[in-house]
Design goal:
The protein is an alpha/beta fold. Helix content is 37%, strand content 19%. The protein has 14 helices and 15 strands. The structure holds adenosine-5'-diphosphate and magnesium ion. GO terms for molecular function: aspartate kinase activity; ATP binding.
Length: 436
Amino acid sequence: VKVTKFGGSSLASAEQILKMKQIVEADEARKFVVPSAPGKRFKDDVKVTDLLYSLHDAAAHFEETDGIYGQIVRRYTDIRDELGLSIKIEEYLEKMYRDIKTGANEDYAASRGEYLNGLLIADLLGYDFIDAADVIFFDETGSYDAKKTLSVLPGALKLHERAVIPGFYGSLPNGRIKTFSRGGSDITGSIVSRAANADLYENWTDVSGFMMADPRIVENPRKIDVVTYRELRELAYMGATVLHEDSIFPVLEAAIPINVKNTNDPENSGTMIIPAIEGRDGARDGITGIAGKKNFTVITIEKDGMNTEIGFGRKVLTCLEKFGLSFEHMPSSIDTISIVVADIRIRHCIEELIDEIHAVCQPDSVEVSSNMAIIATVGRGMIRQVGVSAKLFAALAQSHVNVRMIDQGSSEINIIVGVENDDFEKAVQAIYSALV
Ligand code: ADP
Ligand code: MG
C-alpha cells in the first residue's frame, strides 16, 4: 500500500488535479490519497487557506465578507466545472459560510480548504471520502492524540478499498475542528501511512525532492537523493519547508520511508527519507544540505566564570520562562550564553526581559541583536570530515558576511551561524559554493 499526499500547488487548478489523477491511477497500490487545499496557480495568486483565514477574520470583526467568500466559491466551482464533475459543491460551501458567520472557530474555517478539495478529488477519482474529523484526534490540550487516532483510523481505513482523507485537521474531544500548524497536511499523510501500515509514504509537491539549498536562493541546487529522518527534521525545522518537520514522528516507529516527488515531473526519483543510512553511515561526502530562516533575536549574555557558577543556566531559563518564551537555540562557551528567539515572539517583552536578566543573573553585559537570520549546515558525515567548518567560515568572511553567532557541536549533525537578515541570501550562496 502507498499513501499519496499532494501539496497545494499540485492541486491548485483543474489542470494540476488531472496530473494528480494520472499519478494515482498509474499504480494500483496508491489506495489512500491525502489532499491539501488549492494553493497558488501563479506567482501572486492567493492560497485558498489564506482566503479562509481572511474570511474568518472579516466575519469575526463583522466586516464585509461576500467578496472573499466569492473568491473561494470561484476557486472550487472552477475546478469542479473544468473537471466536468456534477458534485454540488455549492451546498458544502454555503454550509461553511453559514457556520463561519455564526461563530465557527478559526481552525474550522481553515480546515475547509482541504475538506472541500477532498470532496472534489474523491468524486473525480471514484474514491470514498473519509472526513479527517472522524478519524484524526487531538487531546484537550490541543496536541495530536496518537493513541486515540490509532485506535480508530486503521479500522476505518480497512472499511474502504480506496479513500481520500483530507489533510491538515482532525477533531478535539469536544468535537470541534483543530488543525495542525501550517504545512500540516504532511503530518496527516504520515499518520495515514502509519495507520494503513503503508510500504511507502509519497509526498508529491512542486520540486523534485529536497535540494541541498532552497532553489529560490541558490540556482539549480543539487538534489539530495537519500536523507535520514533526523537530517530531514533538522533541515525542515531550519527552513527547508518542503516537508513539515514533524512529519517523521508518526512513521518513525514503523520505519516507513517517505518519498518526496514532483507532480510536474513524476519520472524523477525525488528524495527518499529513511530511518538511517545502513552500512554507509557517515560515508556521504561533505554536507547533506543548507537551510535557514530570517527574523530572529539573539541575546548574548556575558559573565566571566559563568561556566563554574552553579545554577547560572537555570537562572537564564527562569527569566525566559517568566515571559513564556522557549528558545530556538542556546549556544554557550566559557563566559557567554546566547539565546536565539523568533523576533515576533520576543518583540513585545524584550526590554523587560533584559531588565530581568540583569537583576537575576548579574551578568557583565547583555547584548541584543534583532533582525538576524540563522543558517544551519547539516550533515551526518560532517563531523568526521576535517575542515568543513574552516571552509564554511572562510567562505563567509570572503563574502564579507558578518557572523554574529556560532553554534557548533551541540548537535553532531549541524553547524548553525547567525547573520544579519540582509546577508541571508549571500551567506547561503557562499556556504553552498564552498561546500557543495
Ligand atoms: P506543497 O504545497 O507541495 O506542500 P511547499 O511549498 O510546502 O509545497 O514545499 C515546496 C517548496 O519548498 C518548494 O517549492 C521550494 O520553493 C521550497 N524549498 C525550500 N527549501 C527547499 C529545499 N532545500 N529543497 C527543495 N525545495 C525547497
Ligand atoms: Mg507543504
